[in-house]
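Dear colleague,

Following up on yesterday's call, I've attached the two folding results inline so they're easy to grep. Please treat them as preliminary; we haven't cross-checked anything against experimental data yet. The first protein's sequence and structure tokens come first.
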Amino acid sequence: MVVVSKVALQKPNQVVQLSTLENELRLLMAAQAAGCAAFDWDTTAGVIHWEGATDILPQHLDSAVARNFLDGIMPERRGELQAVLDSRDGASASFVADIEIASALGAVNFTLSGVRTPDAGGRTVRLVGLMRDTTERSREVRRLSYLATRDELTGHLNRNALREELSQAIESAKAENRNCAFLVASVDRLAMINDSFGFDAGDEVILGVGERLARTLRGSDVIGRTAGNKFGVLLKNCREHEIAIVATRLRAAVRASGIESRSGLVAATCSVGAVWLPQAASTSQEAMLRAEQALDKARANGRDGFAAYQLSPQRETARLRQMQIADEVVLALKENRLKLAYQPIVAARSRKVSHYECLLRMIKPDGSILAAGHFVPATEQMGIVHLVDRFALEAAIATLKAHADISLAVNVSGTAASDPAWLQEFVDYIRAEKAVAPRLIVELTETAALHHFEENAQFVSQLHELGVRVAIDDFGAGYTSFRNLQMLHVDTVKIDGSYVKDLSQSPENQVFVRTLVGLARSFDIKTVAEWVGSEDDAALLQNFGVDYFQGFFFGEPLIDPKWDK
């Protein structure tokens, strides 16, 4: 018989106790290394036992008294934790609660996570867990939230955030039977300022105009930047006659004195378009659209103008027609009736096809085919052109993947070119299909490239990094300078067809085209002549030095081209 002494029997228990203590110390060290404090909260006695709290808690709260801890939490940030304490759930459960505590160095954020233990009646009797300092994370979340709603240059609301404010204001005005207004203020002739003083000065003018507009507004009014040279202003409570008064103040504030820039004093003015709500528009999208229409009217007679949107039966009929067309386009997308037609672009010297331009076509239910000009303007007005542009890009990429021996040019609408988020999505889609990128050409309209220069300069740069070429469409119809094109680093300009059609019969257009081609060659930019309709015109253009031809004389747009057979 083996006799074991009491001392021998105690040794295993001591080993277990030492092992348990070692594990507890290891866990405590890990918690402290992670910036956490362990707590055991007896809610019945009102006592908290802390481990590691001295490292993270403000000194005045390093206490075992629960009341002191609760009182130290800012009332507006106590709700989540109080809900755990007040719970009457009969089952034990894990919890997470965020709190904020005032300290001498400012507010400190903490996250408590652990297990709640109830008594037989469901009341909370014990909380055990960890508390972590999450101040830096909370600040970063707030910073990112701020950036998500703010314009990077001016600090005012961005377009999406302003549109949300506008939507809420319209709904509130409807519910409370009152009125509000939305104004769009556009910096006049920003392109000339950029040309004369440089783009840094242009940015300073935009910043200065934004500051002057903001200082002129009431505390309840809201301002945001809606595009490169445009600001949106929301007047939350406004009678109709007050719109013109506010617009006058805004314009006067901008033109009152020159704006200081590193390139010198710059004189600036702005034009304003306005819409009274909710009478003249029932949604934020409609309000923004109609304010832009009023702005176009204000700028029609030059700079520093003002116009308010006026309802008219004719305009309302046109709007309803645009809505109908937009609905037809959405249905065509769903039913796969939106197609690409491919028009050849030929090299001037060899007369061989260089690449094809992708042109949108909609097949109607009766089989008839509509060209893009019949429906794309309506999609831009109704805010769905992004869907059409995305379809065109995806269809073009699919065609490039199916035919390794062709190159395609795809268009980006002017509306999409003003939306940095959409442009980034466009680039990301091409990046995912970068194998075909060198055979893709992206065409931007001249007016879009000018009015949204910063966004498009970055867009062009990203496309070039992927091997995509960039062309400016309808060149000559607007007023982009070759200096701007050089700064954009475009590869090609397409001469507007109105200057090319019947060129051999127009000496004036011949002078313009010859000069334009000469300038393009000096900047090492290729040229494409659109609407080439005869051999006489082609010969003249080739003699001027045009690099490529496009027009019915060389091939019509085809939905089912020969290379697809």
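Below is the second protein, in the same order (sequence, then structure):
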Amino acid sequence: MKKVLVFLLMVLATLFFAAVKNPDTIVDATIGEPDTLDPHQAYDTASGEVIYNVYENLIQYKGESLTEFEPRLATKWEVLAGGKVYKFYIRKGVKFHNGNPLTPEDVEYSFERGLILDPSDGPMWMLWEAFTGYPSLESYVKAKLGVSWSEMFDENGNLKPEYHDKLVEFYKLYIDPLVQVAGDTVIFTLAKPFGPFLNLLAQSANWAAILDKEWCISIGCWDGKAEGWWKYHDIRKEESPLYAKMNGTGPFKFVEWDRSQQKVILERNESYWREPAKIKKVIIWGIDEWSTRRAMLEKGDADIAAVPTQYLPQVEGMEGVTVIKPLPTLIVTSLHFNWTINPNSKYIGSGKLDGEGVPPDFFSDEHVRRAFICAFNYDEFIENVMHGLGRRLPTDLPEGLLGFDEALLDDPNAPRFDLDCAKEELMKAWDGKVWKNGFKLILLYNTGNDVRRTAAEMIKTYIEAINPRFHIEVRGVEWPTYLDAMRHEMLPAFIIGWLADFPDPHNFIFTYYGSKGTYGSRQGENFRKFVSTPTPELGGKSLDDLIAQAASETNPEKRKELYIEIQKFAMKHALGAPLYQGMGFRVQRTWVKGWYYNPMRPGDDYYILYKSEK
């Protein structure tokens, strides 16, 4: 009898376990695909998620904390010289996926290669700023050599002979000393203390991922030498040998990036230096149509799904599905304007203010910008589209960071929904020509992101209601196309989100409002000139100056005052509008276990996940 009972229990247990579809595989149905797999060029969450699981950093965040760190590829570290020197002890016995051993030289190479590559609009500005106080390689070269980068090269892109020895010497004097190997340790030397430096190195910061030096050189990356290093600077993403190849030390190996299906496949690293992952295979699948992702989730063909907020009610209560909410985020989604649109843009119609398009400098008129800001119904959007999972902000600085002040929402220049304001501003714009002639332009959103599509359509609806001569087309494109168009200043205006690179106000203020910030630099030459020019309004300083002053201020109260001043200036001149700070949520099959939340992750940490019905 006991044997029969045991047998029946085993059968039941087998059936119970069989209810979990594909127990050794995680299928993540998401939106879009990576922009690149090169850790030093990737600057989006789709790319970052893949890099996070294949490569590793020196340290990692401790659980859900944003301020505590644990060892990863470094076993320990020391902060010396009053915060200017960081010494990391490199873990032994770790191997890359191709079998090569991890060495301190790999760490040195990884950071130097990233600093040299320093792609335009890429993430390396953070490390350049931390190491030197300058926002880029090119600005550092100009400061040290007294000549701009472009002047050193001829019309064919070849280095002029008279600058050859100077650039060789520049590497030896100014790049190589920043990261040095000393026995089993690697030493970083900063120009001055930089409080968030450990945040810049922690797992999730793909720009600080550790590469295999020998393998990178073998496939055509920088050869590690002073001679010719400049040839590897700011190459196009598709030209990078790491664009679609990966070789890390992480818990998963890269198998395939199928561009036709927007699908990335990873497999478990059986030789991982920690315990191997519980999951054998990961499929990260960019499926832009919500109806398809919903069907996959409902059938159990997807274990995790990206759910646009407006569709959240469709999955709440779905059998076998868990919704975890609310999750605090450091993510702001904003509307910003290009003050000098590329004349070759196909999104500005005729390129003239003739009713059939807009001129490239259309948004350099403050009245136009303020009209668009007043033509968005913030409260309605948060309540009905975001289902309450969002909050109003006065500027692009999220709640939870130093300098955030909800009272700024009462400032008369704060973003607000006011169609009378929008009409009045558009009647003033370009000396009345906008109102008389009308305009046409195209607003893009990344396909599959229905929240951004809805935001763009809301702007279209309200602007077009003001005057029948105003016409806005809302058009969806794939994420890499959207990014490229923004980077090349083709977009008249753009709706974009920013997930904190590190939890500090500088990461948002500089990003959106600085002339060299990731989004500030994409808002056209007129914008860059405006924020970099000293003005009596700021006591003879430029907005750039004030942002730099706030970043280096060590007194929290003084620093907060500076950020308040910056925000008031940004609102007064309609530099942009935060549409909302999102409150996150997660949707997964109930059989997915092990997940916990850290807002700094660019996506899932598949190492901690497993599948079980229990």
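For the second protein, one point worth flagging: Residues 57 and 209 are 5 Å apart (CA to CA).

Best wishes,
A.L.
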